[in-house]
Amino acid sequence: MITEVYPGIYKNEIPLPKNPLRAINSYILLSDTRNLVIDTGFNTQECQAALLEGLQELNVDLSKTELLITHMHTDHSGLAPVLKKLGVKTVYFSEIDGGLFNQTSKRDAFFHTLNKIFGLTNDTASGFGKEFGTRLVEPLEFTPLSEGDELVIGDYKLEVVDIPGHTPGHIGLYDRRHRLFFSGDHILDEITPNITFWGFEQDILATYFESLHKVSQYPIDYLFTAHRKIIRNHQTRIKELINHHDERLREILDILRSGRKTTSEMAASMHWDLSYNRWEDFPVPQKWFASGEALSHLEHLVHTGKVERIEEDGVFFYQLK
Q1: Is the pTM of this model over 0.70?
Q2: Superfamily (CATH H level) for 2-253
């Protein structure tokens, strides 16, 4: 479904069947000489049909169109190889997330390691199912972007903004004159971005907080999100997101007062806004996302000195200091 959300800027709402996200907002910026598509949807027949129908409805010439992927998650990047084969001139990624997108063997090894840390026994790929799309076979040629790079599309001068947190290399686009920001999954309305674990060496939740504070300083009239509603008051929403994670941290500390926990035990003890009464009933993807978010918060509490991590026979336990 195509909607003009600002002069020359269109939202292509692409359905995500069997997914609690429901849809992804792919944005299309048009000009006489250069077009830009932001994010794509999964590499599934349903997403591809919706993406291409929207482009055809706007008579988009792919030979003068470029594609920017805000981050490596497959609901945003899945159709990048398809659009590249169909004639899109250039695909933009951050260096970090473009590398993660292409390094399938390293990514699989990391995911299997996480399965063990999370206490999940299902194979990641089979557990996530066909609704997440087919996977990249050959590396995707992309042009890396970083903080301060600019893309000029007609009347819009879009500055690249590094906003790591949801992924290590998440980027956004900011137009200073029109006060517009394309946020990907960095800031969402109605739902909260999943902040998951990306390695013991970094405090990814603290990184996310820093990125939120960074964007809160920008004058923004329209914040174009990748899911659900466009946000008109980004500073209020940022405060709500920070409060959400602060409540999560307090919840974890309360749970740990009853004794140490593994990541999966913590995730099973936390409150989630899902229609399942028992942790055992959670689908594999939801267990995965919940465990990743539990671990990112546990590690933040480790980095801030409130919790300690103990390893016993390859199993990680967390307890109050």
Answers
A1: yes
A2: Ribonuclease Z/Hydroxyacylglutathione hydrolase-like (3.60.15.10)
